[in-house]
Specification:
The complex is a heterotrimer of chains A (89), B (975) and C (416). Chain A has 89 residues and is an alpha+beta fold. Chain A has two helices and six strands; from the N terminus they run βββαβββα. Chain A starts with a strand and ends with a helix. The chains are: A alpha+beta (89), B alpha+beta (975), C alpha/beta (416). Chain A: Pfam families: SoxD (PF04267).
Chain lengths: 89, 975, 416
């Protein structure tokens, strides 16, 4: 796969490591165990567009939010996780 | 000899080769198959199941029969298709799957037993008596199965891997591929043209077509010369594009040295090609027509027969006088007959089931007739033809069979698009949902005539690149009309899949047993599972099944194709990264010192670390380790600890950030101080530990374990970028930037005083758990950490990595009078077990802070990763604790990995109370000691328990103690 | 119709005219007592045991495609019970015991072949971990042996002992482990279940659950509504998709695992070998193909196909441990969708919807579990209680903090 890095252009996916659903950006605040359980363990796991976290480990070490279709592997967007997080506030 | 004039072989030179030990001759330009044919060799192999005699069936990579073992010894290459082997001088090939020899194969008895070996027979028997399966039946089956034999010696050849990028990848260098490459090349696009053959041209080389009134081969040569002048075009000959992967990435294997007696550089190269666009121009594969006993040597595909005549100037006759017949259900077979006649090969008859079939030349035509049988023990001697219920026998030695052409859609379907049945073509065409960026041209898209193939190649490239199509030569444009005869009905066995020995009867049986869906059919009969992947069988089998069910072929469906297109050597896929280069090797900064001092090295992940430093006279590894341990306890030792991960954390919010990373507090750490830190995973389990040193208000240095250095760093970047981007903090890994040496033992201060540049080393100035920046050895920048893994007075000193080896040597030199001793990872481990420090075996991802005795470190006054989840009931209620374990008998051995039981308890899962994590002989205590997790461990100090190791048949009685075997009050390390 | 050698002889002599369909193709009835969603190995085994052990007569299996088309149709056929944790090991050992009598029980030769599995270790730490695991296996009634380097060499002299980046230190051997013919297992269970009256309905995709008052009443399918008192879902790989119809988010991600087979070769590898310094395992089928695989690609996927880096990694690892493999050729590769759970272990449990039960989360290891999974799921469906060996596979274990994490990798599926 090729990941369209927002700063570096298309990069081979082999340069990246994968974490999972970008919902992991939304860490709960406070001490609610149930909220943390859902955050840590439960996933939408869609067959279709999926926003997910990739880490450019053998590159610029940025974390990206990549929107990729899990049925076709087509990538429609890649953003810096810091930007996504910034926009969310 | 059955050479005829003409063809694209260089008769001015002769190459010598052997097959089953017999010496033969061929010419440059031959394949092994054409050269065998030229020497009149007709029997070349045996089928998989029935060990039927088999000859050359095709002229390409679809070959099901002519499999040989090429070369010998460690270079032996089993199951090699003779049709794809470029002849070289000295080539040695042997037949396979026969015993004792190809002519007399003992397992040909299977053919006599074939009535009992129908599709799926093994699922129905071999079940009684039960033990016989593994003792008798299966070993017999395994011995009989398989094809060629793999050598047991390491592959001696070299392999390589590379990356290529292009605007357009053209797969296949036939008419369509050449036209596409010319179009794109002239438009200035970067083009890669890959073809599996050693010569460009594809079917153009095998036909008698004229292009612009000249031979096709001449046009091919001109086109090739044209492409060679274009710097933007790269031609990869002998290169098979075997898979289409995501985002325009293709895998390809270039056979760099396979056509040479010995590879000059590498044998094969794996290319990962990233292409903006691709054109699949892989041509088509001919179908055969199953009839009774259609598998004898001498029976081959009509298009292959034509190819051997036209390209290689050779026929499959044993003698010039042998007669040739053609069985065809379409005009293509007549083209073969016409070409043969034109080249002076006697064509006895063309048998064509179409009543309105017409002749293309001077030969006898049996229209409305079929071939219904054949004879000939080891090769064809006669065929039976049947017309209107009347049968005749024709003596002939060669039969070309033409059942129409199947487009090679494989790569177009690698993204799981299903090929579509075309009623007009009577064949499967590429799917509508092609891999992104791909287009299909030429015969692969159903454009089979030379004119149509050339035009479709050029126009497809022009469309993809938005440029004008290349000028093309005039060529014949007679579209092929196919009306397939899927098989000739009859009582004999009619082979569909030659290599797997799947006959029409097997398909009928699958139908009867409700194995009708394509996948069930395939799996029940093993159709298409052989090394040819069913290239000549699968579509025909679908046609037969469709007839049986009464459904159309379209309704019967097709299977999807998966990589690789043709089989690929595993060594090539590995790209040469084997042996010592399997993974990178990381050397510590003091590697030179270690080697010079006779260190034994050990793998620690990618690192090579000094395991111990044996001295003359030490006969057992423990002599060495005990000495090194006692040197640290009594004097001073040196150990390279560079491999521990080091992460620089800087910024105004560095403390706040680390507070969230570690379960214990770090923001409150004062400048110049060091604190032990424990990280949890978000699910609350213990993750990694290390030290956290505050060098300045906005500057921390943290360490991680060796194993987790990269992981912890990425996790900290995740926290910084994804969780708390508002914090003013920056991270950088400095593991490789700083060499770090542990200087441990009561005399460590005395030793370090000799290297520091006037720095006050007193206990008051550098107390336990403090740190400082300083210079050593006359101006070398350094960092000093007073931390201890051994429980002794100890320091770690870091210098820029390039000074590490020199510092180590200087310390070893200056400390001779102090008894300074370099020590390795074994002694390091014994020292930490004696002190009761948790390491990888205790922090194995399954344990909690509470279990390792650090439950109270998890701060409840702040949020940190894993803090909330560590309070879950399941974690909190776990009573297992890290304990010390001391053997009652000093002569006993405590095996790490033994399980712990109360005395007298049954040794079963239900009464299992824990396990030994780490164990060693303690030279300090003169007894075996261990660490382990024990249920209710905190309340069981002094209890006698048992460590059971049924795996090796031993048990040891232990006393439960504190894990701190040495200096539990910590006087030594604070001294 | 009973299968045996005599019958085969008779049919061979008479042209194989007497064989009938291995199973019927019935139309769905309006209602069943128990519906099993998923006609893969686990679903078919569940139906088989429901009918044969638990006396359930009105059972149907609903399969979206052709029976056996799930991961039972694409895996590396390994059976073993070499687990560490008490939540797992007794279950897998139960499965192994079921494998040992399976073929005689369902009268179908699934080629269960106990030629052993050897896990190689390459460091002292790994050997200590193997000792812990081997002892756990013995304590649970399974078999295990710890081999040193010479012991490994005696079994497989052509492994890389000469030039290895990570030298072989020894191995953990389970002799009762081995392989089984994966399709044969599906067909054996399907035929066995069919013979006991279970309706196996192919080409019938579940498109929704009818849930009323917190209880399941039946399922909507592409062949119409089918009522049921209980519904068991065993669709590993598609669990997320199917359970989304019931509005459930699960501790599961779908990932792609590729597997590979070489051209047919004369016997060279007798049992199963796993590499300990990389992801690679290999065995050789009775037909002669080397069957091998490695790590998952590592990203969420339902595409049933993977990419080159994982292929290359597997080949590198294979060459690193078995340098003679180089001249063998990869013949076919395929990609299966696996349910990667958050702790690497499966789920066999009731769901919050009354009457709706879930069998899922098998990661890349569901094949070996097929018999026990079917048995335990049938037990749960029939009695409402978990089977003795499957009490840890609860859906709420993640919330409670009782994961069954063999690798200690935590809640990140692509690390298991």
């Amino acid at each position: 796969m090729l990941i369209p890095h927002p700063l570096l252009g298309p990069r081979d996916a082999q340069e990246f490591t994968y974490l999972g659903d970008a919902a992991l950006l939304n860490r709960p605040e406070g001490g609610d165990e149930a909220a943390f359980h859902a955050y840590t363990h439960l996933r939408d796991n869609p067959a279709g567009p999926h926003r997910e976290l990739w880490y450019h480990e053998q590159g610029d070490r940025s974390w990206l939010v990549v929107t990729r279709d899990t049925a076709t592997h087509e990538i429609v967007a890649a953003e810096l996780a810091m930007d996504v997080k910034g926009a969310a506030r | 000899m059955t050479r005829i004039p003409g063809g694209l072989v260089d008769r001015s030179r002769t190459l010598s080769f052997t097959f089953d030990g017999t010496r033969y001759e061929g010419h440059p330009g031959d394949t092994l198959a054409s050269a065998l044919m030229a020497n009149g060799v007709r029997l070349v192999g045996r089928s998989f199941k029935y060990h039927r005699p088999r000859g050359i069936f095709s002229a390409g990579s679809e070959e099901p029969n002519a499999l040989v073992t090429l070369r010998s010894g460690a270079r032996a290459e089993p199951n090699t298709r003779a049709t794809c082997v470029e002849l070289y001088d000295g080539l040695a090939a042997t037949s396979q799957n026969r015993w004792p020899c190809l002519d007399f194969d003992a397992l040909a008895v299977n053919d006599i037993a074939s009535p009992f070996l129908a599709a799926g027979f093994y699922y129905k028997t071999f079940m009684w008596p039960k033990p016989f399966w593994e003792k008798l039946y299966e070993p017999l089956i395994r011995r009989a199965a398989g094809l060629g034999a793999l050598g047991r010696d390491p592959d001696p050849d070299a392999y390589d891997k590379g990356f290529l990028h292009c605007d357009l990848l053209v797969i296949g260098g036939g008419a369509a591929g050449l036209a596409a490459a010319l179009t794109a090349g002239r438009a200035g696009a970067s083009v890669i043209l890959a073809d599996e053959d050693f010569r460009l041209g594809g079917r153009l080389l095998m036909e008698s077509h004229l292009l612009d009134d000249g031979p096709a081969a001449a046009w091919v040569a001109a086109a090739e010369a044209d492409l060679d002048t274009m710097p933007n075009v790269r031609i990869l000959r002998r290169t098979t594009v075997f898979g289409s992967y995501d985002h325009g990435i293709f895998g390809a294997i270039e056979r760099v040295g396979d056509h040479l007696p010995r590879p000059e550089t590498v044998r094969q190269t794996l290319w990962r090609i990233t292409a903006r666009h691709s054109i699949l121009a892989a041509g088509a594969t001919e179908r055969h027509i199953p009839f009774a006993d259609n598998d004898r040597p001498g029976i081959l595909l009509g298009g292959a027969l034509r190819a051997y005549v036209n390209r290689w100037g050779v026929t499959p006759q044993a003698r010039d006088s042998d007669r040739v017949a053609i069985f065809t259900d379409n005009d293509d077979g007549h083209r073969t007959a016409a070409d043969l006649v034109a080249r002076g090969v006697p064509v006895l008859a063309v048998i064509d089931p179409r009543r309105d079939a017409r002749r293309f030349g001077e030969y006898q035509l049996f229209s409305g007739a079929t071939v219904t049988g054949s004879t000939g023990r080891r090769s064809l001697t006669s065929i039976e033809i049947t017309r209107d219920g009347r049968s005749d026998v024709l003596e002939c030695a060669v039969l070309g069979v033409s059942g129409g052409w199947n487009p090679n859609v494989h790569l177009a379907s690698h993204h799981r698009g299903r090929p579509q049945w075309s009623q007009a073509h009577q064949a499967f065409l590429p799917p509508a949902d092609l891999p992104p960026g791909m287009a299909v041209a030429g015969a692969a898209a159903g454009h089979g005539s030379p004119h149509a193939a050339l035009r479709s190649g050029a126009q497809t490239a022009a469309r993809l690149l938005d440029c004008s199509a290349a000028l093309l030569p005039h060529a014949e444009d007679a579209p092929l009309c196919q009306l397939p005869l899927w098989h000739v009905p009859g009582r004999g066995r009619a082979w569909v899949d030659f290599q797997s020995d799947v006959t029409v009867k097997d398909i009928a049986l699958a139908h009867r047993e409700n194995m009708r869906s394509v996948e069930h059919l395939k799996r029940w009969t093993t159709l298409g599972m052989a090394t040819d992947q069913g290239k000549t069988a699968n579509v025909t089998a679908l046609g037969v099944m469709a007839e049986l069910t009464g459904a159309s072929v379209a309704q019967t469906g097709t299977t999807v194709f998966r990589p690789p297109y043709t089989p690929v050597a595993l060594a090539a896929l590995g790209g040469g990264d084997s042996g010592m280069t399997f993974r990178p090797t990381r050397l510590t900064p003091t590697h030179g010192f270690a080697v010079a001092h006779g260190a034994r090295l050990v793998e620690a992940g990618q690192w090579m670390r000094a395991q111990m430093f044996p001295r003359a006279g030490e006969t057992h590894w423990r002599d060495t380790v005990d000495r090194e341990v006692m040197a640290v306890r009594a004097g001073v030792g040196l150990c390279d600890v560079t491999t521990l991960g080091k992460i620089d954390v800087q910024g105004a919010d560095a403390g706040a950030f680390l507070d969230r990373i570690y379960c214990n507090a770090m923001a409150s750490l004062r400048v110049g101080k060091v604190r032990y830190g424990l990280m949890l995973r978000e699910d609350g389990f213990a993750y990694d530990d290390g030290t956290c040193a505050r060098l300045a208000d906005t500057h921390y240095v943290v360490t991680t374990t060796t194993a987790n250095a990269g992981l912890v760093y990425s996790r900290m970047e995740f926290a910084r970028q994804c969780l708390w981007p508002d914090l003013d903090v920056q991270l950088i890994s400095t593991t490789d930037a700083w060499a770090q040496i542990a200087v441990a033992g009561p005399k460590s201060r005395a030793l370090l005083e000799r290297v520091v540049d006037g720095f006050d080393m007193s206990n008051a100035a550098v107390p336990f758990m403090s740190c400082a920046a300083l210079t050593v050895c006359g101006g070398v920048r350094a960092r000093l950490f007073r931390i201890s893994f051994s429980g002794e007075l100890a320091y770690e000193i870091a210098v820029p990595a390039r000074y590490g080896n020199a510092l180590m040597a200087r310390l070893a030199d200056l400390g001779q009078d102090l008894g300074v001793t370099p020590y390795g990872t074994e002694a390091l481990s014994v020292l930490r077990i004696e002190k009761g420090h948790a390491a990888a075996a205790e922090l194995n991802g399954q344990t909690t802070a509470q279990m390792v005795g650090m439950g109270r470190m998890v701060s409840t006054r702040k949020d940190s990763i894993g803090a909330v989840m560590s309070r879950r009931k399941g974690l909190v209620s776990d009573t297992r604790r890290l304990v010390g374990l001391r053997a009652i008998d000093p002569a006993a051995r405590i095996p790490a990995g033994a399980h712990l039981f109360a005395q007298g308890a049954a040794r079963v899962t239900a009464t299992d109370q824990g396990w030994v994590t780490s164990a060693c002989w303690s030279p300090h205590l003169k007894t075996p000691i261990a660490l382990g997790f024990l249920a209710d461990g905190a309340e069981r100090m002094g209890e006698t328990i048992v460590a059971a190791n049924p795996l090796e048949g031993d048990e040891v009685t232990l006393t439960v103690t504190s894990p701190h075997f040495i200096d539990p009050e910590g006087d030594r390390l604070r001294g | 119709m009973q299968f045996n050698g005599l019958r085969l002889l008779w049919e061979g002599l008479t042209g194989h005219k007497g064989w009938g369909p291995l199973w019927r193709d019935p139309d769905p009835k309006p209602e069943y007592d128990i519906l099993v969603v998923g006609g893969g190995g686990h679903g078919l085994a569940t139906a088989y045991y429901l009918a044969s052990i638990f006396g359930q007569a009105r059972v149907a299996v609903l399969e979206k495609g052709w029976l056996g088309s799930g991961n039972i149709g694409r895996n590396t056929t390994i059976i073993r019970s070499n687990y560490l944790l008490p939540g797992n090991e007794p279950f897998y050992e139960f499965s192994m015991k079921l494998w040992e009598g399976l073929e005689q029980e369902f009268n179908f030769n699934a080629m269960v072949s106990q030629r052993g599995i050897l896990n190689l270790c390459h460091s002292d730490g790994q050997r200590d971990a193997f000792r812990r695991r081997g002892n756990a296996m013995l304590l649970a009634g399974a078999d295990a042996e710890l081999l040193d380097r010479d012991g490994v060499r005696a079994m497989y002299p052509y492994l890389n002992f000469a030039n290895a980046r990570f030298p072989i230190k020894g191995g953990l051997l389970q002799r009762r482990a081995g392989t089984a013919r994966h399709d044969g297992v599906a067909w054996g269970y399907a035929r066995g279940a069919d013979r006991k009256g279970v309706d196996i309905i192919q080409n019938c995709e579940v498109t929704g659950f009818r849930i009323d008052g917190g209880a399941v009443r039946g399922v909507e399918t592409t062949r119409g509504y089918i009522g049921a008192k209980k519904v068991g879902v065993a669709v590993a790989g598609s669990t997320g998709r199917v359970m989304a119809h019931a509005g459930m988010r699960l501790p599961i991600e779908s990932h792609v695992l590729q597997a590979f087979v070489s051209e047919g070769l004369k016997p060279i590898i007798d049992g199963v070998i796993t590499f300990g310094a990389g992801h690679f395992y290999v065995s050789q089928s009775d037909k002669g193909g080397l069957v091998f695989g490695g790590d998952i690609d590592g990203y969420n996927s339902y595409a049933q196909r993977g990419n080159l880096p994982a292929v290359e990694d597997v080949a590198e690892c294979g060459m690193a441990i078995l340098p003679a493999l180089g001249r063998a050729r990869l013949l076919r590769s395929w990609g299966g969708t696996t349910d990667m759970s958050m702790d690497g272990s499966p789920i066999i449990d009731a769901t919050p919807v009354q009457g709706l039960y879930l069998n899922a989360g098998w990661c890349y290891g569901g094949f070996k579990a097929t018999p026990a999974s079917g048995y335990a799921f049938a037990h749960l469906l029939a009695t409402g209680r978990p089977h003795d060996t499957a009490t840890a596979f609860r859906l709420d274990r993640f919330a409670r903090g009782c994961p069954i994490d063999e690798n200690g990798a935590g809640a990140q599926p692509n690390l298991h």
